[in-house]
Predict the structure.
Amino acid sequence: MMKRCIDSGKIRSDYSILCMHLPRYIEDGNIRLRPLSVLDRHVIGGGLRNEFFSDSCGLINPILRSWLSVWWWLRQTYAVLYCIEADSVCIGFIGLYNLQTDRSSELTLVIFNGKNRRLGYGTKAFNLLAQNLDRYHIKLNVEIELDNAASLSFWKKLGFDEQGDFRKIKVMSLD
């Protein structure tokens, strides 16, 4: 489940401080994180049309018809937003949103195409971002639908602990 970022001065200044100190490009082997670009329209737009992802974000079909609307939503929601590239091909994205003054943040990691899942790309992308966030001591939170066993298993393997359930969502965190 996605949440809109709050546009208060303090939270925006936290975003700015964090964004200024994170590298624009992070890579290790065949995995590269780079700033998501409006030019990633075909891959990201196609991935966001995925019914599960669209529903969990609260996106509805009319919004998805306009790439500019989707792009604006992404830029307004995520303080940090990277495209995940595997062998120079965009396969998904990873981003932080709802950065709070107590240094916690919500995290989203999406690998769009099923054939690119379970190959270690998500783990490598997360580890690259987490290494660069270490010095900020940010508590990362993820929200997963209870019936999404693959995602629950993925986040548990990365060390996330269950914090509780809210409606049909499991909240997990990593300090």
